[in-house]
Model the fold of this input.
Amino acid sequence: MDPLAPPSRLRRTLTILAQVLIVAGLVAGGYFGWKKWQKSSDKGPEYVSEPAQILPLLIERTTATGTLQPLVTVQVGAQVSGRIIKLYANFNSNVHKTDLLAELDPTLYASQVAQAKANLAQSRAVLQRDEATLKSAQKTLHRVEALYAKQLAVQADLDAAVAAAEIAKADVANAAANIVQGEAALSLQETNLTYCMIHSPVDGVVLSRSVDVGQTVAASLQAPVLFTIAQDLGQMQVHANVDEADIGKLAEGMPAAFTVDAYRGMTFLGVVSQLRLSPQTVQNVVTYDAVVDVKNIANRLKPGLTATVVFETAQRKGVLAVPNAALRWRPTADDKVEGEATPKPGRTASIPGQKSNKKPSDALLDLPTGASSTELGRIPPSRVYLLRGKKLIPVDVTTGVSDGRFTEILSGDLHADDPVVVRRLEKAGGAGGANKGAQGMPRRMF
Done:
């Protein structure tokens, strides 16, 4: 058969018929695909809901970071200048009160003590001489007075004898004062000599040592720190930096738990002993110091460890709660919400069954005397959306404490097992979908 011969009529007919069937199949597939897409787009948006539920226990917690510190830390310094010749304590040494920690070179201060003793001895010798002179002057005065009474001495001799006795008496008083001054100088030098021996002021553990043998310390304006001693590591404190938004939830005597990276998986317990009023501002962030007392069992905890502290600020038992996602979710413009009215500016959303025309600031006037900060935080209502079939029904609720996942519902037309919307399912190519093209049109399928 000649390959260059023209095709027969039957072959041409079959070819045309195959092409027609292919075109018809493509048209039918496109038509049914378009109908399916149109049908799915007519269903409207779909939502994910979770039921409101009664929780047996809801715990609100506040987290902060802090540093472990001893209850009492004493810095031991040198009150006199000198060269370190001996050290009797080192890092982590257990010391008792009056134990010798270090010794300065006492040569200079021993010489000053010897000089003060010599000066004192000289002052005492001067006193003895002046006392003898006083006795001689007084005897001379008595003789002159006797001669003057017999008119055997002139007035000038009497006056001279009186003056000499008075001068001798003054010299004795001056010598006595010099002795007191010498004794004070000797006491000062002896005290400086004792300062060469540096003793521990408390029982405790040496945390740091900042000098070595041979080093010279200069105590001119302030005492240089030689040792830092922690009085008792069996009792420690965590100084936690609590954010200003959470400090109102804390109170003295509140239990706290914390962890440290040094002991993973271990939780340490403590009690809030003090909430210090002095704020700390770092880069416009205001924090307050919450002091947590903790027992250092087996001395595991070390000063300076970073602690992550969890404060248990509130507990609720058997309360109605909704997921936090339900409180955050809000419908968009293409979501149909039944009976939703847009609140006017300056007015609070009303809770079903309650009538109120008060402004938000007026709500504070209805609080009972002594209302807590937590009660103040519950005044503004929140809103959740119930899912009834495909309908969204808004419900205004008043919230309470939260554990980060669920929030307590204090009031509102909400009951257990009511489905509340937590998010909306976004369909590809549908209304509100992530695949919308320009001007809200779906992307091309072909």
Q: What stands out?
A: The longest strand covers residues 53-70. Residues 107-149 form the longest helix (43 residues). The helical segments are 9-41, 107-149, 155-194, 324-328, 373-376.
